[in-house]
């Protein structure tokens, strides 16, 4: 069973994906970490994020086993990921890696921006998790504050909200695998839902798709 979960930044899709993977005993891949990994390496080595050739070469040699650590969870890494993910050759370089993960015996849970439309279009269970930009900014703000990435609270929240808007526009407007809702995906709006409520709704949708 493949469970494909898509949605914009800070919508709650990662939390839902991890909970579903644990519930069903399936491996989970946060595909955003692939792009964060590429972006982080670009930043650490001083390469410009718009250098498609270098970004593609890094993507071609990326190892899922290396995608760990707090450095990939920072606001800076998230912004870098959004930039390199817009490069079509980078997405192509990571395509087989993601499809191979999805094709594991028994299935898998993947979350990202194009899982239900490009990576696993035949997945029997598809969710598109979303929330209002303001709520997503609040969630990302709390996450970043928890990591110590805080200066002036009011200014910082405004910057996070601006980042969310920028990433939404970039993810939805790119020519290669844009963020769109798969026709057969269930849309789950988590704006007013707690974690348990969101998980329960997602689980019900997956169970329904399995029947």
Automatic annotation (TrEMBL):
Broad class of enzyme this protein falls into: transferase
Entry keyword Metal-binding: no
One Pfam family linked to the record: Cytidylate_kin
Chain segments annotated as transmembrane: none
Q: Where does ATP bind?
A: 7-15
Its signal peptide is none
Gene Ontology biological process terms in this record: pyrimidine nucleotide metabolic process
What Gene3D superfamilies does its record include?
P-loop containing nucleotide triphosphate hydrolases
- Keywords, comma-separated and alphabetical: ATP-binding, Cytoplasm, Kinase, Nucleotide-binding, Transferase
Reaction equations catalysed? dCMP + ATP = dCDP + ADP; CMP + ATP = CDP + ADP
Q: What is its main location?
A: cytoplasm
Q: Which CDD domains match?
A: CMPK
Ranges of residues in domain Cytidylate kinase? 3-206
The record's subcellular location field reads: Cytoplasm
Q: Give the EC number.
A: 2.7.4.25
- One GO cellular component term: cytoplasm
MF terms (GO), sorted A to Z: ATP binding; CMP kinase activity; dCMP kinase activity
What family does this chain come from, according to its entry?
Belongs to the cytidylate kinase family. Type 1 subfamily.
Kindly provide the name given to this protein in its UniProt entry. Answer: Cytidylate kinase
């Amino acid at each position: 069973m493949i469970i494909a979960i898509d949605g914009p930044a800070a919508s709650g899709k990662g939390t839902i994906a991890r909970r579903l993977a644990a519930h069903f005993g399936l491996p989970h891949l946060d595909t955003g970490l692939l792009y964060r990994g590429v972006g982080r390496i670009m930043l650490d080595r001083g390469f410009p994020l718009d250098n498609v050739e270098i970004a593609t070469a890094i993507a071609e040699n990326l190892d899922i086993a290396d995608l760990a650590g707090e450095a990939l969870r920072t606001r800076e890494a998230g912004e870098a990921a959004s930039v390199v993910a817009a490069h079509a050759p980078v997405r192509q370089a990571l395509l087989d890696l993601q499809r191979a993960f999805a094709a594991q015996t028994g299935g898998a849970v993947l979350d990202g921006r194009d899982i239900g439309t490009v990576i696993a279009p035949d997945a029997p269970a598809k969710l598109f998790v979303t929330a209002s930009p303001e709520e997503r900014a609040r969630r990302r703000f709390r996450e970043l504050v928890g990591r110590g990435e805080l200066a002036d609270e009011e200014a910082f929240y405004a910057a996070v909200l601006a980042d969310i808007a920028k990433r939404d526009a970039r993810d939805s407007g790119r020519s290669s695998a844009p963020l769109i809702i798969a026709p057969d995906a269930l849309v789950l709006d988590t704006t007013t839902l707690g974690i348990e409520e969101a998980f329960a709704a997602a689980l019900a949708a997956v169970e329904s798709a399995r029947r």
